[in-house]
Queue: 2 jobs
Job 1
Amino acid sequence: MVDVSAPGRLGGHLSVAAAARYAAPIGLVVVFIAFFIATPNFLTVGNISDLLVSAAILLVLAMGQQLVVTVAGIDLSVGSNLPWSAAVLGFAYNQGWGLAVSALLAVLAGLAVGVVNGLLVARLNMTDFIVTLGSLSVVSGITLLLTQGNTVAVNSAFLRGLALNGIGPVRWFWVVAFLVAALVGFLLFRTRTGTYLLSTGGNIDAAREAGIHVNRIRLIAYASSGLACGLASVLFVARTGGADPSLQTSLLLSSIAAVVLGGSSLFGGKASVLGSVAGAVLLQSLINGFTLLGISQYYQPIAVGGVVLGAAFISRFQK
Amino acid sequence: MHTITRRRLRTAVLIVAAASLLVGVAACGRGGSSTTGPGEVRIAIVTRDFTNPYWAALRDGAQAEGKKQGVTVEVQAGESETDSTGENAKISTLAGQNYNCFGVVPVNATNVITPLVPVAQKKIPILNLDTQIDPKASQQAGVSYASFIGSDNLSAGEQAAAALLARMGGHGDVAILQGIAGEQNGINRQQGFSQVVAGKLNIVATQPADYDQAKAQTVTDAILKAHPEITGIFAANDTMGLGAAQSVRNAGLSGKVSIISVDGITAALQAVKAGTLSGTISQYPFAEGELAVQACINLVRQQTVPTRIVAPIALIDSSNVDKAIAAFPQPFVPFANPLQPGK
Amino acid sequence: MTDATSNPEAAGLTATSDPPLVRITGLRKSFDAVHALRGVDLTLAAGEVTALLGDNGAGKSTLVRCLTGVHPPDAGEIRFRGQPIKLNSPDEARRLGIETVYQTLGLIEDLQVWQNLYLNRELTAGFGPFQVLDKKSMISHSKDILSRLDVDVPNVRATVRRMSGGQRQSIAIARAANWGKTLVIMDEPTAALGVRETAAVEALIRRLRDSAVTVLLISHDMAQVLRVADTAYVLRRGQTVARRVVQDTTGDELVGLITGAIEGDTHG
């Protein structure tokens, strides 16, 4: 779903800009090869399948973040919207309302936060960084209130099956994540709304002059990110067997890192779903590979940060 | 049109090349791990993080015992006290490798159960370390634990209460600093404490400080302002106790407010020696790590292991702090070890 | 044609008393303390090229934005084909067939040429909520749009970022010319263009007029105004100070009216 642009003045062969555009997928292949050489345990069907399961939640969050970044925004509330939606799921489930209803409520809960963010940013014209930082705290507090600070256990055989099973090595978890990615890619590059999202981020004045309802578009972006959190929360509860109200700052920062790695510009207007997917899988691969190699925990954040910086450097060549 | 097809072709070739590289390599059988020899013990331990010195000590104890017994011990962790998915990822990665015994410290009561299901299905023994995992949820998932190795946090709270009561002369106002909301050990410590002081001390404030030193200091500042008459503070862990001690010192109340916390990390022992902390209920995560490895060795060699192994705790105050520091990280008094590591 | 020193308000009425395409009376617009428009009168005769002149800060851009629904005016009236209208959004202006090329061009740099040409007018296939962009049609039509107007852009699938200033301007003009059915407004359209490209744009303006599209042209280039425009209005400090039939005036007179060296028809 990458919006391929024309080759530059170098004609039909791979130019530097094209390579920069594909930095994340290429980097992913490089990392895979590196780990493959370092240990025979990395490139096995079981391990890769498991790696993708671990990356699934991050991937879904990154897709929501992708849409917000496309309109030159940022969604910091992801760190508490995820546990909030999970808490709603846990609450509803333990009230005996059934898994389907609970999952639906979780998704709606995430969507609601996204809509509030979108209204504050778009209609009231508040800075997105500050709005989502504020909602990060507010939603965290609401979650603690709902759960009374406790982790709410959710004992569902279906969710356990969702987390563990699949068809052969193809696990439901990453099927869901890839479906979300495909949907977002389709939205961005095959629909009018996608063009409006890219326009609003690329040049909001020009978009407005063209008659695009930029406020509505920004609202859609933030709402979508909230929706993604709601969906990710179902995966989260399936994976961890419960709703933990703690702030998920690691997932928040990784969701931004994955989008940046993928080549999207934080200034908006440029998006790459393939890149963000590769970015998310790349981040998870680093952790996975280091675990297999028994490399000290302390090197992992250095490696992750290094990769992000490298991606930022390479993206300068995209012009 | 010509350039468009050429570009699409290039993209397709790239994708197909990458995909076939992966598939070919995976299929070519460099995958798969080496088989374990008979009696060879390979232990995997996963905890919350290594930034908390408590878990670092557990890791160190496990690795030391592993070296002593000549077995492989791999210790991994998540990123923080609340990194449930990070820890999960570690467990499921290691579950796919050939370890024959697992030890796990969960972030919360349920987060590790799902990734442990494949481990249980392979009939690999699992030890629950330090913080209890929800037994009912585990059972429903088909996961059971060969043993729970951990100190008795209820007892730790009770011992802290007894020590604080003694120092406060059996009466007075006390404040409690709680850990991360919902974290079971903290809940148990608080419960043990509250039960013992009930009717004797007046608990005027109970506030969470998330096992964080800076936060504990800020919270204590506020508590001291609101309740200037308190003479005792119980902190559910040492880092919070140290933060409270700093606040008390800044307020000029050292000596007037007694502070007891739980864990027994080095900084706390130093504080007890310096007199800024009245005492700490020392837990021995290093010993927990050793016990975990010993238990695993027994399990792999088909020997029985008790379903509950109590790790030692001890009150450290000015009377025994020097001995404690000298013996650190080991307990300075021998403790009853129900395990004899098999041959 | 009406006489040269006519009352600006009465201008534009033909003998058959067809209402002019656009008639603006007494338009006022302020932004906080800045009074950008302090009572502007302007009439655009259908099928004519009208030039809007004035020094920086005279109110030209503000007037254009009022006419295109970006800033609704504070007071005054705009009549379109005789009917009073209120333009509250760019959408409403576009629906009347009014297209604009702003000085900033209004292009999205990271989108491709065809995407810019079809911005907010995308062709889709399918129906209801399942509409998919019909890229093939838009790409091929874009080529037609550009070639019809002699615009030199070899690859419509290149992003606008890679285009030169002249190419960008041409794309923006081609877009407005393609979609503008009643009125095309151009704000300094040849500012970044070379001689040949300028000539091409002026030829385009004449072609538009010949196909009965009205053009409102803002330009500082007196020679250009004399070449292409039929009527010229001069704004000074937010008010209309003069209307001239281009045939009957000179570059010097227009410049004088702009700077205030020559008194306008309305005073103050």
Job 2
Amino acid sequence: MNNDSNKLSDASEKQVKFDLIIEAGRTEGNYWADIWRFRGLFYFLAWRDIIVRYKQTVIGVAWNLIRPLLTMLVFTIVFGKVAKLPSDGAPYAIFVFSAVLPWQFFANSLSECSMSLVGNSSLISKVYFPRLIIPASSVIVSFVDFLISLVILIGLMIWFQFVPSWKMLFLPLFILMAFAASAGIGLWLTALNVKYRDFRYIVPFIVQFGLFISPVGFSSTLVPEKWRFLYSLNPMVGVIDGFRWSILGAKSNIFWPGFFLSLVLIILFLISGILYFRKTEKAFADLI
Amino acid sequence: MSTIAIRLENVSKKYTINHEKQERYIALRDVITNNTKKLLSRATSTVVNSKTTFQDFKTTEDFWALNDISFDIKQGDRLGIIGRNGAGKSTLLKVLSRITEPTKGRISVKGRVASLLEVGTGFHPELTGRENIWLNGAILGMQKSEIKRQFDAIVDFSEVDTFLDTPVKRYSSGMYVRLAFAVAAHLEPEILVVDEVLAVGDYAFQSKCLGKMQDVSKSGRTVIFVSHNMGAVSSLCDSAVWIDRGKVVKGGSVDEVVNYYLKNQSTVYSESSLCSLRQTQELMYKSFYITSVEMFNDKEQPTNAINFQDEIILKISLGGLPKERFSVEFHIYNELGQFVAVGASGAYHGIYFNKDVSNIKIKIGPLPLTRGKYTISLSLVKGIDGINTSRSDTWQNAISFSILECKPFINRDISTLQEGACIINQTFSEWL
């Protein structure tokens, strides 16, 4: 009798459907569903970062216009006027700015991402949500900066009476590519920065160094033909070339094999970045 | 039959303690230097120094914060998790709220879990109160529509409506905490996991929070509450689990577990409470003072865990020399710091002690108090009959006791009523 009733209760308990199973390695399965479930939080975190960014600085939005503008001015003077480098036939200012745009987006994303988890450590140790949301919202914030800087480009085009060609229609694709590059490398740095705290000293170096090895102030056509493919191992070369091709129109020629190499590398970075981030993510709360 | 809300099966969590490093973080430079060192020492001294290199590898130790924990929590249960510091309570909460993954085992959950391990998580000082309500709500897992619906209630509860558009960095700490708790209090999950967040704010607000927590638990939702405060656990929960060194020591009804805990923890508990010795610094400038107090039950057994209608005896030792005859007073406060009762040998009973008296016994009770923790403050009063009397010494929070069980009437179902501060005699009859 007793045995029978035990079995009965066992059977009835099995019918209880649990909504959530917590187990070692279990978060893997419904990770993307979770990200969708926490989209509200994603939105609010990005919104918070944007608001705080513009509240804290007195000149707010203006600061975002001044930085790329000054970079553009210096590069135009040094590379265009002093060194007299070729500009693919476009006004040097527009030529430089079409590269400063994606570069600043990329550089901002890297520095914001790498500090994002450490800066939100209290959140991470107290509340559960897919951690991917935090660096992702950092990239979004940098993207908003990017959109604001886009205004300068339009201003420059009006100033120089530069009419873009039909290629301009492809710009969103290259923006997407810049987005992928920022997110991919950003995720790598974010995860590494939680694990190794001295990684944050390396990030500014990468950003500074990258500005000079990427074709921001000069045209990548200056690189000798035989080295161009190798040069495109820097994923930002592909992004910047793409931006120039799209913005400067007929006047810019693009080295397609190099471009696709960059594109493949960016996709690899993005996938491996997400994988590595997910792998280390579980330990974040314990490490921070 | 109630269904299971949470089932824990063999849940374990391992942390690796690193003995080698004193730093909190791993630095890449250390990893590089250590690996190079190992490489070099292996290359150069394979034979000579094999012992030391071997030790280099054994610098970590495993620590099981949770070790094979299994129990079920039924829907609508109010479960208290008790245990001393470092017993694994917080780790269990972290695992339950998915902040960290268990190393082994599995937890099955039915329903939406919201955890409250801290009030004001994610509050940003630069944002206004209004903005922080939205942000904090989202962080705690509320949907946009939910926050919208509850917004006015949250503002009402927090009492900060006039400062709603001021950045919270300009808030007083009290306002900050009130706003933070208000958001948390309006979560409506099926399962609420709460850490000791009640120890915030002023007394009035604390009792408001306790009341809100009681409302939540009475609405049939599952509550898991972690606390050191046996009084709060006893009054909020109906079942409890005692965890020590990562293992379940005892589970069952709240009275059973809390009693068992207090009995078995008495060694730890008594050090602080059964007998209190006064801090010497306090007495430097006093000529007449209380030096110690001990607490007993009516059978003269040392205890500080008693039940409703029990009596307690306080034995006070005095030091120094009084200039005249004196009387003794005691004040009892509840865990919210509210003044509950007073006793005075002189003013109430006309009892004054001679100058040479150095030990005094006070018998208090039967105590009509409800469950909770109470503290007693003691005072010495010099002078007679209210003329020129003044307190020559007051010892705040001299000793504390807990009322564990309060079942004054037969058939009383404690879960249906909120207990008041005390129980008064009552009779009910039909009136014709």
